[in-house]
Amino acid sequence: MQFSTHLLKLARRPCNYRGSLVLASRSLSASSAFSNAQSQGTKVIQPTLGVAAAMKAQSDSRFQPKVQIFQEFALKDGVAVVTGGNGGLGLEMAMALAEAGATLYCIDLPDTPSPEFNACAAYAEKLGTSFNYVKADVTSQAQMSSVISKIAQQHGRIDACVAAAGILGPTETSALDLSEDDFRKVQNVNTTGVFLTAQAALNGMVKTGSKGSIILIASMSGSIVNRGHPWVAYNTSKSAVLQMARNLACEFGKDGIRVNTISPGHIYTKQTAAVLDLHPEQGKIWANSNPLGRMGQVHELRGVVTWLASSASSFCTGSDILVSGGHHAW
């Protein structure tokens, strides 16, 4: 009983519980949680969804049952920003948000978008939404602030921002020989760039009163060490992103803004393909370290990024979700 009260209180503030919250909550009965919360004076908001909808239909013959789960994940009329959206994970996640109904702004460094981006833009138009390319440097506070503030002003809202721009840096250089410039470059893109993206989006959300979602793309490498690979710069930068999200979640939860991270594991992308070109045997090692015995695919992040961007995840702030070989875990 005491623990169920604690879970309800956690749902009302940013949390950084990665496993116990979800698993333990499944073992609690709704009645005990509600009665305990009421005895402690906790205000419980129960939308008419799922079990509550079924109970309503049983007691009210006028209540019309309808499927609502897809609407919970919808982003119709929403506005989303994705950095690193010209290809790879960023483009795939942007496409998923567009399919959910959002107007997309993909920010990246090349002067012109890639053929893959152009194909996605044409496809999004056929789906009835908009897919826009914006050239900007995530390491420039002035550029990111200008670009995202204009988007917020134009639409009067920002519903989701995915900070996916990132670099791996030198893949074969020992920490003994890693140059100051190379180390700083990785931190500048992967940590400072993520912060400047989040900062600009948060400003846009606060100024427009948007209760949106900030999604920072971290990595399993922020929590573990890629043994056999001298990736100290990359791993350091991704670890910083995890702590950044926890801090931002706690600071802006009061504004109704959610901040979470996604930590891709061994996912097959252009970055990992470059490593495998040098070390083909590494592919089997990475595949065997994934739960399903294979490398993950970029499309396997579609569901989790859409969930985090939608209202369905409204209480999950400061959480990190691992996506690796088809496996999602807290």
TrEMBL record:
**Similarity remark:** Belongs to the short-chain dehydrogenases/reductases (SDR) family.
Give one Pfam family: adh_short_C2
Record's protein name: SDR family oxidoreductase
Per UniProt, the keywords (alphabetical) are:
NADP, Oxidoreductase
- Which InterPro entries does the record cross-reference, listed alphabetically? NAD(P)-bd_dom_sf (IPR036291), Sc_DH/Rdtase_CS (IPR020904), SDR_fam (IPR002347)
A GO molecular function assigned to this protein is: oxidoreductase activity, acting on NAD(P)H, oxygen as acceptor
